Amino acid sequence: MKRTLRKAAGFLLILVMVFAVCACGTKTDESADEKQTAFIESCENFIVSFAGLSQEELQTVATQGDFYGQAVQMWQESQEELGAFISVNESQYSVNGGVITIVSDVKFENKNADVTITLLEETGEPTSFNVEIEKTMGEKMEQAGMNTVLGIGIVFFILIFLTFIISLFRFIGEKEKKPEETVQPVSDGQTEPMEAQIEQADDKELIAVIAAAIAAYEGASADDFVVRSVKKVRKSSWKRA
Predict the structure, then answer these.
(1) 103 φ, ψ to 5°?
(2) pTM for this one?
(3) For residue 186, which phi and psi values (nearest 5 degrees)?
(4) Which domains does the chain have, with CATH numbers?
(5) For 6-38, what is each residue's pLDDT tens digit?
(6) What is the DSSP code string of 159-216?
(7) Numbers of helices and strands, H then E, in the chain
(8) Could you give the count of Cα atoms lying within 13 Å of 97 in the half-sphere of its Cβ?
């Protein structure tokens, strides 16, 4: 236990000295390239030293502050998938708003990972630690396939939902239609009186015409005689006459 604490304390002391040297470098007149190189080397040395710690030593380091606790947590969560540490390949340096970001491509036994460390440019104090595992081509293809299936499923669901909504429009249209006026058919019983009235009207006109003709022929008034009835005469009778 004492040996573990001694080793962890030594690691922290080296780490503090490394970042302190970087911080001092930012206040001197050294060139930007030299400052960049110093920060990159410090972060790479930190990763190499960090990978050499045992689980007990990592637990001791995790109690030294938020940055160290986050670094230990991210490292332990990725160890099962990554495997044993092999080497640091290369690192990328960038500065934005007084914050330095260094992304190191680290090679492990099973996969590679991008280890990102951020530091304050003015003091060199580390603020965050992150491990992002690089996916293999097979994993990328699998993720792309899942995204495609999910997208197609969402499209079909929306189409089915829209079809259901459109099918309800016919019920709305039936409520808005006004009832059509229906024409009641006239029964046979109602047509017979009307036909009788028409025949009576025709007979009266015919009687009036005959009465006027007789009155003109006799030289008398139409009021002097009354036509009682009118009967049709066969054509053959006229011929005999």
Answers:
(1) -110, 120
(2) 0.52
(3) -85, 130
(4) 2-138 (3.10.450), 200-230 (no CATH)
(5) 454 445 544 554 555 455 544 444 577 888 888
(6) HHHHHHHHHTHHHHHHHHSPPPPPPPPPPHHHHHHHHHHHHHHHHHHHHHHHHHHHHH
(7) 8, 4
(8) 1
